[in-house]
Amino acid sequence: MPEHRPPGPPRPTPPPVVREHLPVRPIWLCRVCGGPWPCSPARAHLRQEYAGCLVTLAVHLAGLMLEADDELNRLHPYTAPPPGMLHHRFLGWLRPRAPRSASVGDQEVCVKVEINLDANLLINRVGGVGVGWG
Ligand SMILES: [Zn+2]
Question: Which of 26, 79, 87, 128 is the most exposed place for a label (fewest CB within 10 A)?
């Protein structure tokens, strides 16, 4: 009795593709899930990547927010998201959910970063992470 063989060589299983939730510019939507960037998976990734350096993350996101504002206003000058909406989208999620005391040893963490740009963006961190418009 002849041996039964499947047609052709066996196909190797490709490794799973890990796609990062990065923005498609200039529309600033996630290239994986299509949501407004930073989407929930992107936020989780950023929180993990910048663990312990949330002020640095806030400054990074503030720069991206300004780039998004510029690009979205060029793309859709009459329907681009207003600055407050972009602020909430890029920085508002960094706020802690519950008030907490942030301290390093006996010293309270108090960092204030000001960026003097046209938008008069002000980033504060006092006792945790707080980001707001000045
Ligand atoms: Zn996404």
Answer: 79
